[in-house]
Amino acid sequence: MSDSPEPSTADAVLSLSSLLKHAVIDGDGRTLGKLSDVVTRLRDNDYPLLTGLVIALGSAGYFVPMSDVTSIDPLAVRLRTAKVDLRPFERRDGELLLKENILGHRL
Fold first, then answer.
1. I want to staple 36 with a disulfide (CB 3.0 to 4.6 A). Which of 54, 83, 91, 104 is the partner?
2. What are 38's strand-pairing partners?
3. Ordered structural domains, the chain, with CATH
4. From CA 32, how far away is CA 5, in angstroms rounded?
5. Around Cβ 51, how many Cβ atoms within 10 Å?
6. pLDDT digits (tens, 9 = 90+) for 23-70
7. Is residue 27 a contact partner of residue 80, using CB atoms and an 8 Å limit?
């Protein structure tokens, strides 16, 4: 028996590589697609700000703002709504995609 407490879910570390391709579940409990990438914005002297997710529906990617995300866990990404903007994702100035721009690259 250990004297150290078990880590809580809030303390769990989730890696990007383990989350990619996980199901994205809408507010009605239906699977919308798979997590394709995470959109971030760098900030001076602070951690990057997660601004949204790119979900894959077929061969296209769609943006979901972080304000629509209720949870991200080892099994799925859950959204508060069943509505998703179906305009194809386009990266804006100052945004980085963690999978496309960071994962697997030497920094």
1. 54
2. 53
3. 15-99 (2.30.30.240)
4. 36
5. 17
6. 999 999 999 999 999 999 988 888 889 999 999 988 889 999 999 999
7. yes
